Amino acid sequence: MPSTPSVWLEPCLAAHRRLEEVLSRGLTDEMARRPSLLPGWSVGHLLTHLARNADANSGMVEGAQRGELVAMYPGGAEQRQADIDAGQGRPATELVKDVIEAMQLLERAWASTSDEVWATALSRTFGGVRSTAHTVYLRWREVEAHLADLGLPELGAPAWDGISQAYLDAEWIEQTAQLGRRLPQGTAVILIPGDRPSRVYGSAEQPIQVRAEPRRILQYLMGRGGADPGWPPLSQWS
C-alpha cells in the first residue's frame, strides 16, 4: 500500500482551493487591516502566517527529501512572529499573491516526495519531532481553522460552522484524544454531539453535559469560542 498521506493530502489541497477562491473575490486593503477573529491579529497577520506556514512546510519536506531533519521555523517562535509582523501591513494584492505562490511551492514539494520519504522521514515542528507525513495533516488544520478565523463572510469565508465534514471528523479524533488532560482536575464532561456516540472524558462521578452540534463542540475544544457558560474551561491544546 502506498505511503503517500492521501487521506490528509487530498482534503488539504481542497482547503487550499477554498482559500484561493475566497481571496480571488476581491480582498481590499481595508479588509486586510481589519481585525481577524484571532485576538491581536489582523487579516493581514493571518494571511502572512498562512504564507509563511506554507514556506515552513516546504522547507521541512524538501529537507526530508535530502534526508535531513529540518525544523519548521529554524529561528524558533521569534522568527515565526517576526516574519508575520514584517509582512502583515502589505497591500492586499501582495498578501494574496504571497499566499497563493507559497501554496503552489508547497504543493510542488509534496508532489515530488517519494513514497519512501513519506513512509520514513521526520520533521521538527513546534510540538516536537513528527513524521513528515503528519505535517500534511498539520497544514490542513492551519488552513481549515484559519479560513474560519479570517472573518470575511462577504468574500465567502466560512464561519466555524462551515468547516468541511472531512476536517471535522479528523480533528474530532485529534481533539478528543487530549481532552481528558485539558480539563480542570476532578472534572469530567460527556460530549453529546448527536451525530456520533456520546463519550465521557475526564474523571468525576457527575460529568458535565456538553450537548451541541459537533462543529460547535469542536469550536469550543479548539478555543474558538462557542461554549455555553456551564461548560468547563480547557487548558491550551497542542
CATH superfamily of the largest domain: dinb family like domain
Basic shape = globular
Structural class call reads: mainly alpha
Order of helices and strands: HHHHHHEEHHHEEEH
How many structural domains are formed by the residues?
A: 2
DSSP strand tally = 5
Q: What percentage of residues falls in helices of 4 or more residues?
A: 40-55%
Report low-confidence residues grouped into runs of 5 or more: none
Gyration radius, to the nearest Å?
Answer: 19 Å
Provide structural commentary.
The chain has helices at residues 6-23, 29-33, 43-65, 76-87, 92-111, 115-120, 132-149, 165-177, 179-182, 214-221, and strands at 122-125, 128-131, 188-192, 199-202, 208-211. The protein is mainly alpha-helical and 238 residues long. It has two domains: 6-158, Up-down Bundle (Four Helix Bundle (Hemerythrin (Met), subunit A)), CATH 1.20.120.450; 178-221, no CATH class. The strands form two sheets. A three-stranded mixed β-sheet has the order 4-3-5. Strands 1-2 form a two-stranded antiparallel ribbon. The radius of gyration is 19 Å and the shape is globular.
